[in-house]
Amino acid sequence: MARRPDVPAEPPTPDSTDPPPAADLGTHLGSYRVPGGHWDELLDDRRALRPHWQSFAREAGDLSPEHLSRAEARVARQIHENGVTYNVYAATDGASRPWELDALPMIIPAAEWERLAAGLRQRAVLLNAVAADFYGEQRLVSRGLVPPALVFAAPGFQRPCHGVSPAGGVFVHLAAFDLARGADGEWRVVKTRCQAPSGAGYALENRLIVARLFPDAFRALRTQMLTRFFERLREMLHDGAPCGGEAPHVVLLTPGPYSETYFEHAYLARHLGFTLVEGGDLTVRDDRVYLKTLEGLDRVHVILRRLDDDFCDPLELRADSTLGVPGMTQAWRAGHVLVANAFGTGVLESSALLAFLPGIAEHVLGEPLAVRSAATWWCGEAAGKPDAFPGFDGMVIKPAFPDARAKPTFADELGESARADWRRRLLASPDRYVLQEYLPLSHAPVWRGSRLESRALMLRVFLAADGRGDYHVMPGALARVAGGDHHVVSGPRGGSSKDTWALSEAPIDFVSVLPARLHLEDTARRPHAVSSRAAEHLFWLGRYAERSENCARLLRSVLSRLLDREVFPAPLLRVVTRACRRQGLLGATAEETSMAPLRLERELIDAMFDRRRGASLAFNIEQTVRVAANVRARLSTDTGRLLNQIPQGFTQPPRSAIRLAETLELIDRTIVRLAAVGGLETERTIRDEGWRFLSIGRCLERLLFVTATAAEVVASEDAAEPSLLEWLLDLSDHTLIYRVRHTHQPEWAPTVDLLLFDRHNPRALAYQLGKLAKHARLLPASGLAELVREVQLMRASCRMPAGPDGGLSGAPGRLDDLLRGCEDLALRLSDAITLRYFSHVYEPARATAVL
């Protein structure tokens, strides 16, 4: 294998003052093998560490098997806690799969990276010029540099985009190139991504995880930071926004939570401060795009789209698409919204175009491509052209490079009809008839279990336009490595990923994601637009999270008492049985008023894990996490991490009957995490309309739970029984506060006052009514004034009913009426909010124009 010119023959001598590492990579080379004919990213021809890997091994510290295995476990744990997923639809379960990340980085020396970055910038500039020509004067076609069939028959060519000149002449705002290194050590482009390139967010998440594993090496090797790239991307979109002096409103358009890369969509929206939207959240009025918010239509100036061209506009691009926005193409054509990337850039992703880029570069730029493509042939050139091989019926195969002479073999015995059919299909879909040279991919080191192995590797490098004719290269990449077959890189479905360290010769300065300079107008706070869809998800996040906690507390309050079945009082057993049935945790058995303790225990534990039961703890937790994923961009990182930890123990039903102690341990852990989520919602969520709906959802569920459980005690003949009151206090987590206030055992009046009428108790019924009245009154254009008045009157009536003796006498009936009234009012308020704010989310999208 040839040695690269930039790799010195002898490795540099380490500084003798540096302490020797506890174990270096050299101790793991016995299990590390790269197949012949493949470039080795780790070792040179003499099986010595390449200089940059020597530096890594010297600075990384302990690289013993134990340490690397712990690092591997830390990566997996961080991926899980951060909720980094890649949705796989080919899978039988259709579930989100955890993102896979190797602990060892991919390292690219500074000189090599500079050459690669310069070549990719040149290629991005060229592709933008090609797009401008294809949708403009089409000189490349008229001068014979590109065959007409390759352009006009390509699925990515969008005729509605012809004649459009986007702002600044930028068609390609964000580009990505898939790179492979051949056996000669040269990087080649094998695929272009110019519609909605994905992976930059995953690359950033990889960096945040892996850099923590080897912080000393990360700094010592002068690894370039990724943050500045995202800052420049945001600045470019803001600067190009057609906002006429307004603060630009940028949205990130996603296909929705079932998209393969939805995690990245939410991640980037939160990181960049953009509003995450789906097609149904947007509408077009008078050739302008608006976001449907709780307060009305809010103008959108920039759309960073993660939808392919065809799906963006059912009016002009693909009629059966339900993901796009009717009229968005016309709004873009009129210059009233910046769409990144511009419509029509899918034609640049054609593999057949790679065969003609060298000639286009010479013609357009006057220079050859600095980073070559993998040798590519398109089986569709006219006969008689130089450097072409005869094909069928006057068609030929044109090589991408004059020295690429690998002639494909065709079946000459095909008849005329077969050749005619082949030609017709070729012209109808030129990308299906492209040949590309086989590249034996380079291999990089990966840590698997307890050994160092090699895997085939490819890079995806990202570039963002600067708005002035050039591009910024993200100083790093998304590295993808092969899975178990070691040699085939098939993307996240079949392999893993790596953090890519692009090294620098110069010192690295810290770069913040916040704007570098603030102006006076920047200090004005632009409200964070809340779409109706986001408000609905937040509303149900509050409800499902509260349902989960209520369900867990009810289960714990019952199961913990079943530990000692001998002292389980009969009145309490009857009440808790009815309460569990009322909450859907037990099947409805009309003839039974209570259950035997052993049967109750078994049925509650079985129902707890049954995700098909709509009221089970497993179901409510699953729904909490699902709804939270839809508004991931609006939740803090810590909130997301906690939510991702909650399903542990519920994802799979227990294979055998688990013990009561294990169940209680799981419930305790779940309650703590759910309570922590509630605290983070209070402390870390922006106080906007979305937070208000989240709070209303929680208040409604808490109110319904308090009324339901208290009603079961009120309906009991033994309502004043201390064991029932103790259970109520435990259920609502009020045992401690009751003991602080009262030194005697639980009694009816103080217990009811604390749980129902104490307006300063955050879990009391009266407190929930007060919060609901406040939040409902402040909703935008609510039209809920009558219901708000009812809530206020209900709260005013929340006081201890007076009996003749000041005790229980005469109280149950009056309390029962109050509880029934509160439950009915909560349900009516929920319905009113749904009809007023959420029902229009599902109306068909439409475009209107002022004539």
Secondary structure layout plus pairing:
Elements: H1 51-59, H2 65-82, E1 85-87, E2 96-98, E3 106-108, H3 110-134, H4 139-142, H5 148-152, E4 174-181, E5 187-193, H6 200-213, H7 215-220, H8 227-239, E6 250-253, H9 262-272, E7 275-277, E8 282-285, E9 288-293, E10 296-299, E11 302-305, H10 328-333, E12 338-340, H11 357-364, E13 376-382, E14 389-390, E15 395-398, H12 416-428, E16 434-436, E17 443-448, E18 451-465, E19 471-473, E20 478-481, E21 496-502, H13 532-559, H14 570-582, H15 597-608, H16 617-630, H17 637-645, H18 660-684, H19 689-714, H20 722-731, H21 735-741, H22 748-757, H23 765-778, H24 785-796, H25 811-838, E22 847-848
Helix pairs in contact: 13-16, 13-18, 13-19, 14-19, 17-18, 19-23, 19-25, 23-24, 24-25
Task: Write a brief caption for the model.
The protein has 851 residues and is of the alpha+beta class. It has 25 helices and 22 strands.
Short key terms for the protein model shown above:
851 residues, alpha+beta, 8-stranded mixed β-sheet, 4-stranded parallel β-sheet, 25 helices, globular
What does the model show?
- This protein is of the alpha+beta class and 851 residues long.
- It folds into three domains: 38-374 and 439-529, no CATH class; 532-685, no CATH class; 688-851, no CATH class.
- Helices cover 40% and strands 12% of the residues.
- The protein is built from 25 helices and 22 strands.
- Strands 3, 4, 5, 17, 18, 19, 20 and 21 form an eight-stranded mixed sheet that branches. A four-stranded parallel sheet has the order 7-6-11-12, covered by helices on one side. A four-stranded mixed sheet has the order 10-9-8-22.
- β1 (85-87) and β2 form a beta hairpin.
- α13 (532-559) runs antiparallel to α18 (660-684), α14 runs antiparallel to α19 and α19 (689-714) packs antiparallel against α23 (765-778).
- The chain starts with 50 loop residues before the first helix and ends with a strand.
